[in-house]
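Quick one, T. Sequence first:
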Amino acid sequence: MTNENQTNQTKKFFIYARKSTDSEDRQVRSIADQLAELRELAKKENIDVVDTLVEKQTAKKPGRPVFAEMLKRIEAGEAMGILAWHPDRLARNSVDGGQIIYLVDTGIIQELKFPTFWFDPTPQGKFMLSIAFGQSKYYIDNLSENIKRGHRQKLKNGLWPQMAPLGYLNNKETKLIYVDKAKSPLIKKAFEAYATGKYTLKEIRKIINDLGLKGRRDSLLSVSNFQYLLQNPFYYGLIRYNGEFYEGKHEPIITKKLFDSVQEVMMRKSKPHSKGLKPFLYRGFFRCGECGCFITTETQKGHNYLRCTKRKNPCSQKYTREEIITSEIQKEIKKVSLPDDWAKWMLAENEKDKLVEVQSSTLFADSTKADISLLDSKIEKLMNAYLENALTLDEYRDMKNKLVNEKQLLKEKLSAFEQKANNRFELTEKFLKYNIELANEGINEEKLHLFKKVGSNFIIEARTVLFEPRGAWRILSDSGFFGGNSEQTALRADHIFGVDLNSDLMRRERDSNPRGP
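Structure tokens:
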């Protein structure tokens, strides 16, 4: 009678169901299906289910909290066994599998029951269970290796193997990615704004988020999101994966030049002026010509005065009214600026030349293509050297990354050349438009920003503005082109441009000033 009572006595078990979102669980039944079969088995085997435990986490590595808690409760005597759909639901790694077998060996776990697998706590049963755990681990290891192999092949082909970064979209049919027309302009604007050095990451976040850029599931981007975005070479055409660079076949959103500018700003940790300071027009613009200290601005009796901070050495420079400095800047601008009508005439001529003249520089294009081909062969040799163990993985990656970046620069140069074979027309147009904007009366922040492009080393000494013109503006300044009166200037223009500007200028002068010569 005692044996019969023990046989008919219900057994206490835990039901354990698990399914992760990883790829190895794609073919596994859902949690609901697992639970339905396990409850049916419990009813059939006259099992008392102490608790039903559900876990949505991969078993590739140890550390599942629900699984660990279940084993603790079994050790505490709450149950004698586990009901699971298959041994791979309990363990896919050697640590968890070994722990289960050890608890069976010590008698803490008396039974394991599976609808799809036979188990008996005998040497043969434990041997079969260890084989099942080993097969589960082999499956996950092999699957992981297959996924890695697939990723490596995609990367070699220039394809991003995962979900597209922000600013791009996945094409489910072609398995390629393409530019998100809505978000990509905002990402480009983020790079352009940060490259100016005027904004912090926090300010960039507010500006771009306010413009409507959102992450996945319409979430707002954090400061760290923008930091990662601005450091991602994917946006200029390269793929960085596990520390290695690959050439991408996707369409770049920005150029490498812009990306490099952003990295320089980020390295300098550029910060704007403190919010507590007054927004004076010339703050931080000039240095003292005598001692080299910065010129600061302060307000006295309703007027702004510029003065040397005198932080290094004694300095004899005196206060200067802001209006005097503005007048000085206007005077200096005139020395390096073309008259408005000249600039407009030259713009028109430049446009004619652009339409008529089409330069062909096949030599440059062929040379660049040869350089790209040479880099390809170097990258291939590097790969062979690595495969032959002549290079370590770190050495291979470092050398390959440099070559890939060099190749990307050459490709960008070639692309820019093919799209704009005659870039000098655009540079001329840009220079002339700057002249027209500078010729406008008044000084504001925008015009002051243009003035910075004209020269460098802006100083104030003896209430006079001095600076060093650069580029085309240096040529204008050195030529003394605007040193004489209007008639002499026009005569010089006739000689240079080959047109009769003198009569037209003189006619306008007489009309506006009858007492003139």
